[in-house]
Amino acid sequence: MRNIKILLIILGFVSLFLIFMAFLINAPSKTTNNPTKGELLSTPSPTKGEAVSTSVSTGQETIGNDVGKSIGKGRLIKKLPYQGSFFSLSYDYGADSFTLVISKDNSASGSAEADGFLKYNQLDGVSSLGNVTTTYK
Questions:
Q1: What 3-state class would DSSP assign to 112?
Q2: Half-sphere exposure of 42 (CA within 13 A, CB side)
Q3: What is the pTM of this model?
Q4: Which helix (H) or strand (E) covers residue 29, if one does?
């Protein structure tokens, strides 16, 4: 009988310890400045003529459009140089610039193919590359 009481006391302490640890693990960190869902939804609407800044919530972090584009450019740069049917795209690390060469004979097809390639790589198009030199050959 005495052994059962000791076992129950030990089980009680162990279960209290596990509950305490579960609360510690799931407790929100007080050092982060991530906006809550309510704060993201309560941002004021822009008035006419103001720039619109969008953000994507990924659970623990919020990534702004500019950062998302930088990530997309970084992924794209790893795939370069790229040769399509009617265009080629390369990146110069020293000058931090892109070079887009479009076929002169098929400029409409080359431009469309380049835009499609960039959209496939999660960029808005040639204008989202920033420093880009476009030539027609």
A1: helix
A2: 5
A3: 0.49
A4: none
Length of the chain in residues, anyone? Answer: 137
pLDDT digits (tens, 9 = 90+) for 51-90: 444 444 444 444 444 545 566 788 888 888 999 999 999 9
CA distance 118 to 132: 13
Residue that the structure tokens 């982060």 belong to: 32
In angstroms, rounded to a whole number, what is the distance separating the alpha carbons of residues 44 and 28? 26
pLDDT tens digits along 4-58: 889 899 999 999 888 878 777 765 555 545 545 444 444 444 444 444 444 444 4
Give the strand pairing for 132-136 and 97-102. Answer: parallel
Residue with tokens 């939804």: 41
> Under 8 Å CB-to-CB from 127, ≥6 apart: which residues?
none
